[in-house]
Amino acid sequence: MVQHPVHVAANPFAGATVGLSLLYGRASYGRIERRTPLGAVAAGRAKGETDAPMAAARVGVGYTFALGDWALSPGVALTYAHARTDGYAEATGPISLVYGDATATGLKGTAGLRLALAKGNLRPHLGAAVEHEFRRSPTAVRVGPTTDLLARHERGRGDRDLLRLDAGLSWQAAPGVTAAASVSAERDLGGNGTWRPQARLGVTVGF
Fold first, then answer.
1. In what order do the strands lie in the sheet with 151-155?
2. 129-143: per-residue pLDDT in tens?
């Protein structure tokens, strides 16, 4: 996936931060394979490829409390995201199908807390956040044997709450240039969801 983020932040008064983030990205799926049983022992395979562009906007507010060399920062944010999967045709074969464009949108609120070292070039941090997705559009796929015979298949999606924990380290390599690495894990609340780990590396350049 290729992503192009833009972040803008302002400090209306001491300790307070207001931020806006915009993101555009595109994922490329070069190998999509679908298998269908054919009889008791045989299976058919159909392959395709497509792209999936997406865009998101996030606005957040927070406040930072000084605790000696450390900073404690609670905050809330609202995020809207829209994604589209381009339609594609599977390679010609006995079970090949045609898929139309599919879209999905979502709106979620986040409340979090972050503890970070506020001095020095190397600054570790710990964070925790709870997210609530209170507007999730149904997942809809249009599929059929030809582009003229596409049937709509829709699956509803209910509200979802999840918990995210993260830890990381940032390094100020030069004035206005910061490199960061972090690990995180998230899981759905209210069920038997498993933890889903992630790792990130990034560089931020300030102007």
1. 88-89, 98-99, 139-144, 151-155
2. 999 987 666 666 778
Collect all residues with Cβ–Cβ distance below 8 Å to 129 and sequence separation of at least 6: 110, 111, 112, 113, 163, 164
- The residues that bridge with 141 in the sheet, in sequence order, are 153
What is the torsion angle, in degrees rounded to the nearest 10, for the CA atoms of residue 42, residue 44, residue 45 and residue 46? Answer: 180
**pLDDT, tens digit, for every residue of 3-33?**
788 889 999 988 899 999 999 999 888 888 8
Let me know: does 63 contact 74? Beta carbons within 8 Å.
yes
Torsion of CA 91, 53, 109, 181, to 10 degrees: 100
Closest CA to 105 of 134, 131, 125, 63: 134
* Alpha-carbon separation of residue 167 from 181, 184, 191, 204 (angstroms): 9, 6, 24, 18
C-alpha span between 168 and 176 (Å, rounded): 19
Rounded distance between C-alpha atoms, residue 80 and residue 57, angstroms: 5
Per-residue pLDDT tens over the stretch 38-72: 766 667 778 888 898 999 999 999 999 999 999 99
Query: Six-digit token pair at 203?
Result: 């560089």
Please, which pLDDT band fits residue 128 given cuts at 50, 70 and 90? very high
